[in-house]
Amino acid sequence: MLTDSESALARAVLVHGPISRTALAERLALSPASLTRLAKPFVDRGVFVERPHILDGLVGRPVTPLDVASEWGRFAGVKLTGDRAYAVLTDARADVLSQADRALDATDPEGVVALIVELVRGLVAEATGDAPLRAAGVSVGGTVRAGRVEFAPFLAWTDVDLANLVSARLGVPVTVENDVVALTEAEHWFGKGRGIPGFSLITVGAGIGHGLVVDDRVVRTTAGVDLVGHVPVSAAGPICPLGHRGCAQMLTTASVLAAFTRSLGRPVAAREALVLARAGDETVVPIVSALAEALGNLLALVAGLTQQSVVVLAGEGIDLAAAAEERVRAAITAARDPRADPVTLHVDDGGFTAWARGAAAVAIQAAVDRIDLRARTSR
Which family does the record assign (predicted)? Predict the structure, then answer.
């Protein structure tokens, strides 16, 4: 296990590298001698590598940046939905090297585990280079605790020891996490929220998710479900299955497509809905406007309640929001007191790839926690 100082150093190099020792020392409030002492075991164990000299822009002298060694390892991430598995293989910074997805032929745990293993092994077999698969992560909608899926509504699972089941087949440590928490961690360390000490994450797709970072840490709860999905966002919105008028459920993919279907009098698929929205089709303009206003209201409400003026919007269902992004931003402004700090909105349009990357990110974080500088090799 790393000490607090070692852990802070590992995170700083991982998130901000390649980074000069001077910048590292300033970021971590360490003396040059202390930094050298802390960094040496990481270099000796092959976790860090010294990059070629560059000129310090301040004084014009050469410096040697520290970086995470590419040979340290690769990481797999798998996002599970109710009917599909999305997998990525990444480097230590969660940059996606390759990806694949497959339909779930069945949702029983054994069948899903077999598919996860098949997807990961396939990505590893196709990879180039000698970096080993160091760890894997799996994310799922629902309640997750210590690697066990206590409740996953989209898969109809209760009490599934998923981490151990997958780890036993893959032969590497496996981290299982709630999908919104995992995506929040990925945005915090490697994505749109990188370097931002506090922000909210709102995800739009099959459900509505909310992640929160405060004081540079992801806030974790035991709920894992139904955090903002039924917050009222439109007085004139539709009634959700639980009887709520105009709650955030109106933004889910199923609700949006139902609205398009009612308006056009025929079934509408997601791709066609997006084409119509982007084209400004007069039949769907009122729907898109109502959705944009509702989403803007939700984002403004979340920013106000959490006191975090930065919001990251992500998820596989945000394409319609992106098509009406100006309206969303206008709705946020209209819903805020003019004296309040403006909301900074960042949009991650990575879709399901972003979700899978989130699973890889929590595997990377866990791998950092497992680094043992006192052993003969780092694990």
Answer: Belongs to the ROK (NagC/XylR) family.
**CB-based contact 36:5 (threshold 8 Å):** no
Residue pLDDT, tens place only, 256-285 = 999 999 999 999 999 999 999 999 999 999
Choice among 22-26, 59-63, 274-278 with the minimum mean pLDDT: 59-63
Residues 230, 178 within the same domain:
no
Please list the residues that pair with 345 across neighbouring strands. Answer: 311
Instruction: Specify the DSSP element, H or E, that contains 121.
Output: helix 109-126
Q: Where are the alpha helices (DSSP H) in 2-102?
A: 4-16, 21-28, 32-44
Q: Give every CB contact of residue 44 below 8 A, 6+ residues apart in sequence.
A: none
Q: Yes or no: say if 257 and 251 are a contact pair by the CB < 8 Å rule.
A: no
Tell me: do 204 and 162 sit in the same domain. Answer: no
Structure tokens at 5: 């100082």
Residues in the chain: 379
Note if the bond before 18 is cis, omega within 30 degrees. Answer: yes
Question: How many domains, the chain?
Answer: 3
The residues pairing with 87 across neighbouring beta strands, listed in sequence order, are 78, 100
- How far apart are alpha carbons 351 and 147 in whole angstroms? 24
Q: Indicate yes or no: pTM above 0.70.
A: yes
pLDDT of 58 reads 53
DSSP run (H or E) holding 181: helix 179-189
Strands 344-347 and 310-314: parallel
**Are 178 and 105 found together in one domain?**
yes
Structural domain for 49, as ranges: 4-68
